[in-house]
Amino acid sequence: MAEAIRGPAVAPLYLGIDGGGSRCTAVLATSSASSISELGRGHGGPANAGTVGMPAATASVDEAIEEAFAAAGLNRVSVAAACLGLAGAGRAAVREEWGAWAHRRGLASEVEVVPDGVPAFGGDGEPPWGVLVIAGTGSIVWGRRKEGSLERCGGRGGLVGDECSGYAVALAGLRAAVRMVDGWGPETRLFDRALIRFGVVTAADLLATLTQPGIARGRIAAFAEDVVAMAVAGDGVADRILADATADLSQQAASLARRLGFRAGEYPLRVAGGLLCHAALVRDGLVEKLTTAGLQPAAVIITADLAAAAVRTAARRSE
Q1: Are 25 and 42 in contact (CB under 8 A)?
Q2: Residues with Cβ within 8 Å of residue 189, at least 6 apart in sequence
Q3: Which run of H or of E encompasses 274?
Q4: How far is CA 239 from each of CA 49, 93, 229, rounded to the nearest angstrom?
Q5: Residue 288 neighbours by CB under 8 Å, 6+ apart
Q6: Distance CA 103, CA 146 (A)
C-alpha cells in the first residue's frame, strides 16, 4: 500500500470519537464558516474500559485516531477540540480517567468526555433534546430536557442489564439453540446459524468456543444479526426473543420519557447502535410499543454516525 502523502496540518482541526463495546471510530475534521468538512476516518477495537480495561480501550482509541490522521494525509498533532463519546463514561470517575489520558497524550486543547451516544443530542442537526435509545453491543436510554440536563435509564452492563443489546439478544438466541439440542426447547433454526457463525460442527464445540478465555463480547454480540435474520425469516423462537427484548427497551424509554415530562407527539426519538439502526424489525417494534403506551414520538431520527456527531460537537465547543 502506498504511503499517505503528508502535508502541513490544516487549522483548526477537530476530533470526534465514538467508542463502543465492540469497536471505536474516530473522525478528523476541519471547519470553514458554518460547515464541517471531514478529512479522515479511522477505526479501532473495543473502547469500553469497564469491559476490556483502560490500556486496551485507550489503545483502541489511539489506533482509530492514528488511522484518521493517516487517511487525511496529515501528521498527528494536537487538535483544537475533541469530543469523546465512550461506552462506560456515564460515571464521573471514568470520564476523569479518560480526560487524564487525553491530557497526557496531548490530544486536544479542549477535551470533552461524554457517554457514548450523547453527542447525538445537537450533533446531528436536530433539536438538542428528547430521548435517545442505544442498542449496540450494550444498550442504554438517555433523555435530555430542553434546558440541557441529562438523565438515563438502563445501561447497567451485561450481567444485570443491557436489555435488548446485541449481547443480550445473542445470549438469548444461543440459549434457545442449546435448549433445542438438549431436547427441552422448541424447534429453531438458531442452532444451525450458531454453528455457521462460530465455525463449529457440534454443540460441544460451540460451548467450548463461547467459553474460551478472552472471547470478545463483540464476537458473541454479532450473533444478534442471526437472531434478527431468523425472526425476519419466520422463526418463532427468534421472533419471541426480539419481541421480549424490544418490550424491555420500550419500557425503559417510556419510563424515562415520563420522568422528563414528555408527551405523545412532542419529543424526538433518536435511535443509535447497530441493532436499532440496521434492524427495522426492532426499531419499528420500539416505536410501536411506545405508541401503544401513549408516548408516540414526534419524529424518529436514525443516528447511525455517532463519530460524526461527536466531531460536530467538538467544533461547536471551541467556537
Answers
A1: yes
A2: 230, 233, 235, 238
A3: helix 274-278
A4: 33, 39, 10
A5: none
A6: 31
**CA distance to 25, 198, 230, per residue, from 19 (Å):** 6, 25, 29
Rounded Cα gap, residues 265 and 291, in angstroms? 9
Identify the three-state secondary structure at position 142.
Answer: strand
Number of Cα atoms under 13 Å in the Cβ half of residue 233: 13
Residue (of 133, 142, 210) closest to 170 by Cα position: 210
State the DSSP code for 45: S
Digit-coded pLDDT (tens) for 205-245: 999 999 998 888 889 999 999 999 999 999 999 999 999 99
All three cell numbers of 288:
410501536
Per-residue pLDDT at 7: 43
Q: How far is it, in rounded angstroms, from Cα 119 to Cα 315?
A: 12
Confidence of residue 8 (pLDDT cuts 50, 70, 90): very low
Give this prediction's pTM. Answer: 0.85
pLDDT at 204: 92
Q: How many CA atoms lie within 13 A of 71 on its CB side?
A: 17
Report pLDDT digits (tens) over 284-311.
999 999 999 999 999 999 988 899 999 9
End-to-end C-alpha distance for the chain, whole angstroms: 38
- Grid coordinates in use for 247? 418490550
Report phi then psi at 203, rounded to 5. Answer: -65, -35
The total number of residues shown for the chain amounts to 319
User: pLDDT tens digits for 97-110?
Assistant: 999 999 999 999 99
Cell output for 33: 464558516
Write out the three cell numbers for 108: 486536544
Between CA 139 and CA 165 the distance in angstroms is 5
Q: Looking at this protein, which amino acid is placed at residue 267?
A: Y
What is the chain's mean pLDDT, rounded?
90
CA distances from 272 to 6, 75, 111, 177, 182 (A): 34, 32, 23, 28, 36
